[in-house]
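Work Package 3 (structural annotation) set out to generate three-dimensional models for the target panel prioritized at the project kickoff. During this period the team completed the workflow that converts sequence records into discrete structure tokens, so that structures can be stored uniformly alongside our sequence database. As a representative example, we reproduce one entry of 187 residues exactly as it appears in the project archive.
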Amino acid sequence: MKLQSLDELIENLQQLPTIGKKSATRMAMFLVKNKFQAIKIANSIENAVTAIDECKECGNLTENELCEICMSNREAKLCIVEHSKDILILEENDIFNGYYFVLPELDNDKIEKIISLIENKKIEEIIFGYSPSIENEAKIIYLEDRLKDKNLKFSKIAQGIPMGVKFENVDITSLYKAFSDRTKIKN
């Protein structure tokens, strides 16, 4: 049995991150059998892709020219992250109360925006919210060098062993970082 429109739907669903053929097939079958739900989902997708854009100041997702975070009054700290979804996670969990900047890769125009943000928001500390990798370490070093004349404190998120994971399941770099960046326990 060949259903061209179903095959096309499955193929398009497979383009989504982490969706393989089996998951795409299950979703496609659900959507085909639940037409009202499928139309609601299609409308939500259309609304989101037309209404949401990047904040002109920080790169976060927003339905306006500037995101709510950039328009609010926050601590004089700037967390540079790789993806806007990182901001969503930090905000949903009330982990950070400063400003953000999305910088997936080094780009001179975006670095100039960071400098402008530092000056406009009177930023005192830059926190690098990148996951550990050699590439990200190189980015951090480069950015610190570019921003060194701004009289800022620089820090990065701690790295190490995730809670509940045994040494045998941890890569050697993470294990090394966990030991070298250890903190003293107060008596």
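Residues 35-51 form the longest helix (17 residues).
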